[in-house]
Design goal:
The protein has 1 helix and no strands. It has 65 residues and is mainly α. The longest helix has 30 residues. It is rod-shaped, with a radius of gyration of 35 Å.
Length: 65
């Protein structure tokens, strides 16, 4: 006697476009956070330099009493 096995076709339910939409929203949020917090932090690191004030004239006279 012959045995017939009817296997259902493989279903490809990967969520459709929902996964791509969620991924796009996450990328937009991460990009926004980088612009708001990352860019100012990078600018602050690059522009931080010590200021040195050198006087144009030094008084070396000793005052005696």
């Amino acid at each position: 006697m012959t045995t017939i096995v009817n296997n259902p076709p493989p279903s490809d339910n990967s969520g459709g476009p929902a996964g791509m939409i969620i991924g796009l929203v996450i990328v937009i949020i991460v990009g926004y956070l980088f612009v708001v917090y990352g860019v100012p932090a990078i600018r602050q690191i690059q522009t931080t330099s010590p200021q040195i004030n050198v006087p144009s004239e030094i008084d070396v006279n000793i005052k005696q009493e």
